[in-house]
Amino acid sequence: MKYIFCGNLFSNVEADMKKMKVAPPVSSHKYQANLIDGLKANGREVVVVNIPRVRFFPHYPEIFMGRRTFFHRGEASGIDIPFLNLPILNYWTQEIFLRRELRRIVKTNEKETYVLLSFNNYLPQNRAMISVKKKYKNVLLCNVIGDLHGDYGMKAEGRYDGIRGRLVARIEKKQDILSSQYDAFGFLTKDMAEALGVSQKPFVVIEGMYSGKQLSCTEAKSQYKTVFYAGAVEEEYGLAHLLRAFSMVKGTEYQLLIAGSGGAVKLVKQYAAQDARIQYLGVLTPKEVETYQQAATVLVNPRISGHTYVKYSFPSKNMECLASGKPYIAHDLICNPKEYQAYIQYPKDESDLALAEEIVRVCSLPLKVQKEIGEKAKNFIITEKNPKKQCWKIIHIIEKLEPMENT
Which residue spans within 27-73 are E strands per DSSP? Predict the structure, then answer.
């Protein structure tokens, strides 16, 4: 079998993020890069056909995205397809050029089985991949899904308001319908299979993976006990909970640093205006996030279980924060496999007070103990959740399938 990874990655994550007024989340890019790493680590041949991960013009400065070589980890691994980067036209041209490129590859050897693999359910990819499968019998489709939509997805305030919001809702519903037509799946939680209506099809649970370099964890040399959060700044992700909890922490030696974009940025700035210990850092590149992580005392994820989407998602920051070598505080959510209990520092409950108390407890531990906690978690992620081990689960179910059995 030959694998064609249908990607939606940044061509150059650091440079592209700086070009955009509001950059898309980086977590999807990292997960896709890990999938490519994992396939290659298991000795599979992989060609990447990528739709560059950019906002449409004028939020990204280029109108015409030309065909370019796609580089993964500095190695030429496929192509970035061309398309017109204008609203509506971007979807249409992405589908056309992706379908054209996939057909060109598949038809070169119709005796070979091709696995078209993607992450998440982006509409132009859905349409193009399903079209190619219908035309060629030597094709299998696999989708690793990180987010569901509608009743099972995160419903940030205002997300589905107005004409644009209703259009987004329709597109997302169509994406989920098309994704259910694939042959095999990777899900972040087992409940996602039932929600998508594919529990009878082959699937595996891959809550995440980490392929970053092993960091030499550095001790925070600041005078502050620094609590750091980086990610989507949304109330649905617990930002208001974190702000209220930190406000209960007493002491000028504490500081809370928040990075990212989203609907709760205004709220963060309001708290920062009232409490000099709170700082909003704006949107950071992955390298900048890594720098702040290494300077922090503790990393935090304030997501709580009071939302339906929590059952159908797994916070990608769990992997990165645990792999950082720093103590990591998060709540014990239903989506967290039990094996994580030994590595995440859980507050006693989901109240503001409990989170505040856990922040103080962890920050007050001797530096030696903090380092031991971080190192233990880092070793767990690097040895047990690396791309080779996690991707083997997908390969195992895919390579049991035969193209003629597809429905």
Answer: 46-50, 64-65, 68-72
Question: Any idea which fold 2-209+386-405 has?
Answer: Rossmann fold (3.40.50)
* Nearest one of 35, 141, 51 to 96, comparing CA atoms: 51
Report the side by side order of strands in the sheet with 46-50: 68-72, 75-80, 46-50, 2-7, 114-119, 139-145, 184-187, 203-205
- Could you give the CA distance from residue 351 to residue 211 in angstroms, rounded to a whole number? 34
Which of the four CATH numbers 3.40.50.11260, 3.40.30.10, 1.10.630.10, 3.40.50.2000 does domain 225-384 have?
Answer: 3.40.50.2000
Mean pLDDT of 388-401: 95
What is the reported pTM?
0.86
Tell me if 234 sits within 8 A of 206, measured CB to CB.
Answer: no
pLDDT value for 220: 55
**Residue 153 — pLDDT band, cuts 50, 70, 90?**
confident
Residue type, 143: N
Percent helix, strand, coil in the chain, to 5, is: 45, 15, 40
DSSP SS3 for 278: strand
- For 405, phi and psi rounded to 5 degrees? -85, -5
Residue 25 CA to residue 222 CA, distance in Å, equals: 29
